[in-house]
Inverse folding.
């Protein structure tokens, strides 16, 4: 598996959350992964729409 920027930021946020350095919601900690998934979804929808023409 290739480590992307989103994965690195998630690992940093997770480490900071588990060590108590940050007191963020878990939604913010997982937001880099959720953002990456949303980008992949949008990209695939746009790709599908452009291929139909």
């Amino acid at each position: 598996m290739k480590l992307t920027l989103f994965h690195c930021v998630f690992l940093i946020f997770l480490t900071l959350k588990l060590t108590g350095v940050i007191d963020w919601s878990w939604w913010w900690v997982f937001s880099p992964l959720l953002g990456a998934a949303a980008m992949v979804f949008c990209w695939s929808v746009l790709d599908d729409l452009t291929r139909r023409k």
In short: The two ends are 34 Å apart (CA to CA). The mean pLDDT is 93. Residues 5 and 48 are 26 Å apart (CA to CA).
